[in-house]
Amino acid sequence: MDAVIENVRSFVGVRKSNQVGYRKPAATAQNVRNKVVSKIFGISLSDLCSSEGSDVPFIVRDICTFIEANYLQSEGIFRLSSPSAQITKLKEAFEQNCNYQDLNVCLRSSVDGHTAANVLKQFLRNLPQSLIPEEVLHIFRESKCLSDETFAASVRSAMNGWQVPNRSTLQYLLSFLQQVMQNSHNRMNVTGLAVVFGPNVFR
């Protein structure tokens, strides 16, 4: 929990202490796709994860894995846009194949990393409720006026009330973004990622 707090604190752009990296959640029996979901974009995180039988949506896992394997060093990954037609095509492919055992089928047909990155951002932006609730954002905004102990206690208390999919998805996303930041070739530091992801996870 403390690692999540420190990572989000730097993500929002306020003072931070030493970050502790996250390991990606290990695959479990719950990660088997139930193949009963009928939609991916624009539905609640809890409903999507419940349908998939996973704490982290498979579209998030699949896109992050795809970028990690092929485009982690691509300059401007997550910052540069892609043609809207390509983004729409990939989104439609995910929707049409959402009951497939392996959503990676959508990422095997000449899809570039920037298009996949833009689809991930749109997925997060289209969630009915933001990944990080407003009450937590308020705590982070006021954190410069709080001691480290008070700040950590406030965020921990707020995050304890989160639904599991929100907590797990944030943990997974931050773990992945740390890997993005560690590759200097892509020129995406914490400030750049905060600018890109802030509007998609906070509202």
UniProtKB/TrEMBL annotation:
<dbReference type="Pfam" id="PF00620">
    <property type="entry name" value="RhoGAP"/>
</dbReference>
<dbReference type="GO" id="GO:0005886">
    <property type="term" value="C:plasma membrane"/>
</dbReference>
<dbReference type="GO" id="GO:0005096">
    <property type="term" value="F:GTPase activator activity"/>
</dbReference>
<dbReference type="GO" id="GO:0005737">
    <property type="term" value="C:cytoplasm"/>
</dbReference>
<keyword id="KW-0343">GTPase activation</keyword>
<dbReference type="GO" id="GO:0007264">
    <property type="term" value="P:small GTPase-mediated signal transduction"/>
</dbReference>
<feature type="domain" description="Rho-GAP">
    <location>
        <begin position="43"/>
        <end position="203"/>
    </location>
</feature>
<dbReference type="InterPro" id="IPR000198">
    <property type="entry name" value="RhoGAP_dom"/>
</dbReference>
<dbReference type="InterPro" id="IPR050729">
    <property type="entry name" value="Rho-GAP"/>
</dbReference>
<protein>
    <recommendedName>
        <fullName>Rho-GAP domain-containing protein</fullName>
    </recommendedName>
</protein>
<dbReference type="InterPro" id="IPR008936">
    <property type="entry name" value="Rho_GTPase_activation_prot"/>
</dbReference>
